[in-house]
Amino acid sequence: MAAFEYLFNAVIGLIIWVVIANVIMSWLIGFNVVNRHNRIVDMIWRTTVSVTEPLLGPIRRVLPSLGGLDLSPIVLIIGLQFLQIFINQNIFGRAYG
Hints:
mainly alpha, 80% helix
């Protein structure tokens, strides 16, 4: 059971880091620090968007519009951490004791 717990926590952690990378990339592209015409930048951007958009899209549809401020990554990270704590305590915690 410890292997499943490790895998679950690693996947949640990886998703959180990809969300953070996506936010940072959007800032760098938005402020014209990096250019999407660069193949490596475009590849990283498309990868992070393809991983995060299925998770962020439903949250964006529910959250009210705040102009240019997108709070969906924050909501997603908080939700993932809540899920991680809940599963660790209630599923994996019961397996050990």
